[in-house]
Amino acid sequence: MRNRWLAGFVVAFVCYVVIGGLVFHYLESWEEERIRREVFDMHRNVDNMTHNLTGGNETTCLRVPPSAEPPNTDLSEREDECAVEGGSCVAASSLPEMMKKVKNSLDEEVANLIAGKDCVPEDDIPVMIMSRRQFKYYISEARLASEHGLDPMSTENDSSPPQWSFSAAVGFSLTVVTTIGYGHIAPSTAGGMAFCVTYALIGIPLYLVILDGVGKLLGKLVRRVAKKAHSARKWSVNRVKQLAWAITFAIGLCLFFLLPAFVVSSAESWTYPESLYYMFISLSTIGFGDYVAGRQKGQQYLGAYKAMMFVWIACGLVFLAMLFDLMKRGIERIDTEESKVETQTDGGSCELQGMGTVTASVNRKSQKKQTSLAVNGSVREDTHPNV
Fold it and tell me: Of these four, 179, 214, 243, 371, which has the most CB atoms within 10 Å of its CB?
């Protein structure tokens, strides 16, 4: 009956995660799409400026005349009418002189760029002259993109995968209820935040019940196998237990660490040690977020790979929790044995002390008796002298 209840909880948990993915996708995907369009438009504007400057002759050698010496004239003083509360501005009459200095600076930069070269890479051509407001806008867009899991260098043809697609939202739901919480994305809408709180309040206890139940079931299975091995081989109970847990640890290590790390390393272009690091940080629910699978720019991920990651996280968390519980029991057993030894030592000391006290008391009584006998003998001799 207990196993049926556990199976029911597992089915309910899977449905709960899928439903959560649907809701998060509905609440957050439109905001993500808006940010993606803004970032793509920003890169498109830069590309257009480059194309307009080069005129479609990107393969030809681009040369610019040597720079002219900048004039020695100073900028005019800022006029009083340009003062703006909370900031500063420049008189309109000063802009022509400023643009001359900008042009001279640009000519000098281009002269250094083309020195000794026959062709200049397109990405090195200075095509942007922007105001401080425009610069702040680009920085803000880059920061906003990064906060929503989008690589700021993403374009329409080369971008990181959407983080609020249905499959990605299901993965996010799983990280919420398992308390991994990578932190690379988070709900940004009011509805998404409110739903996340409610969703976690219900999902986390449900996950803990399943984690405890599955862990106990696996432990019972290991003990049952150990008991059969003990009956068949006539080995000692401790030896069979140690062997059973060693085999369980080896199988779990291969299934949930070594093998998945190899797959992730190939899919994410990470080194194998980096993948192993990601495995442990994820399954231990530390979740720093410095390494997150499924978000590499320009990478196309298979549906089977995403499904494998979901199964791996759900099952691997159970294995690592069981391993931590086994380690905890071992430490508690060592502490209990040390306490027993200390108790026995203290009891032995008390017993020896008690025996010493009794012996001393007996000796004192014996001495008193001997003294009494000696005194009585003396008295008799005095009373009845020899004739």
Answer: 214
DSSP per residue, 332-378: HHHHHHHHHHHHHHHHHHHHHHHHHHHHHHHHHHHHHHHHHHHHHHH
The angle formed by the CA atoms of residues 166, 321 and 230, to the nearest 5 degrees, is 130
- List phi, psi (to 5°) of 87: -165, -160
Query: Torsion over CA of 354, 359, 364 and 365, rounded to 10 degrees?
Result: 100
Residue-by-residue DSSP string for 245-283: HHHHHHHHHIIIIIHHHHHHHHHHT--HHHHHHHHHHHH
First to last CA, the chain: 105
Phi-psi region of 217 (alpha: psi -120 to 50; beta: other; left: phi over 0): alpha
CA–CA separation, 196 vs 186, rounded Å? 9
Q: How many whole angstroms separate alpha carbon 138 and alpha carbon 108? A: 25
- Specify the pTM: 0.69
Contacting residues for 372 by C-beta, under 8 A, at least 6 apart: none
pLDDT tens profile 312-343: 888 888 888 888 877 777 788 777 777 777 77
* Contact criterion met (CB below 8 Å) for 310 and 204: no
In tens, the pLDDT along 74-120 reads 444 444 444 444 455 667 787 788 778 778 878 888 888 888 888 88
- Which CA distances in Å does 12 have to 21, 167, 207, 336? 14, 18, 10, 39
- Give the Cα separation of 345 and 339 in Å (integer): 10
Helix axes 303-383, 259-268, angle to 10 degrees: 140
Question: How many Cβ atoms sit within 10 Å of the Cβ of residue 262?
Answer: 13
| Residue that has been written with the tokens 């369980």 in this structure | 248
At residue 258, what is the residue type?
A: L
Q: What is the DSSP letter of 93?
A: G
Tokens of 86: 């909370």
3-state helix, strand, coil in the chain (%, to 5): 70, 0, 25
